[in-house]
Specification:
Rossmann fold, 2 domains, binds adenosine-5'-diphosphate, binds magnesium ion
Length: 128
């Protein structure tokens, strides 16, 4: 049976700017199943980056629910979000964000370095 890997419901994100409130997301709902590929399209300023920041656990919604692999994200503290990012999410950035003073292989190894479940041996093998 298909498994819903992302479930978001009525997701809202407001930014307070001085005395104004910017409603960047006004109640977004959708589900994504395991193995499904998804593209988010929209005009500049429509909220793509705001949504991706939340889906990627870099930011939290003002309101609404977000379940990542059945874990509720909305009220998790920063450290728990960092753990989820490490274990469940891969980012491919527009710029590569490589560290200049480490080798290519060390750059590949780096995210696994922060995962205590992966041994040094496995880390090196997987990076290689
Ligand atoms: N940190 C922020 N503070 C205030 N307003 C923001 C912030 N981030 C985004 N916005 C506003 O939220 C809306 C959506 O922005 P954004 O998610 O960057 O759209 P997109 O990536 O689709 O161009 C825009 O009106 C933008 O100005
Ligand atoms: Mg953007």
């Amino acid at each position: 049976m298909d498994h819903e890997i992302l479930k978001i419901e009525n997701l809202k994100r407001n930014f307070i700017v001085g005395s104004e409130t910017v409603h960047a997301l006004k109640g977004v709902s959708f589900n994504v199943e395991q193995g499904e590929f998804l593209t988010i399209m929209g005009a500049s300023g429509s909220g793509k980056t705001t949504l991706l920041n939340i889906l990627g656990c870099l930011d939290s919604p003002t309101e609404g629910t977000y379940l990542l692999d059945n874990i509720s994200i909305a009220s998790l503290p920063k450290n728990d979000l960092a753990k989820l990012r490490n274990q469940k999410i891969g980012f491919v950035f527009q710029s590569f964000n490589l560290l200049a003073r480490t080798t290519a292989i060390e750059n590949v190894e780096l995210p696994l370095l922060y995962n205590p479940k992966v041994s040094a041996k496995e880390r090196k093998e997987r990076a290689y």
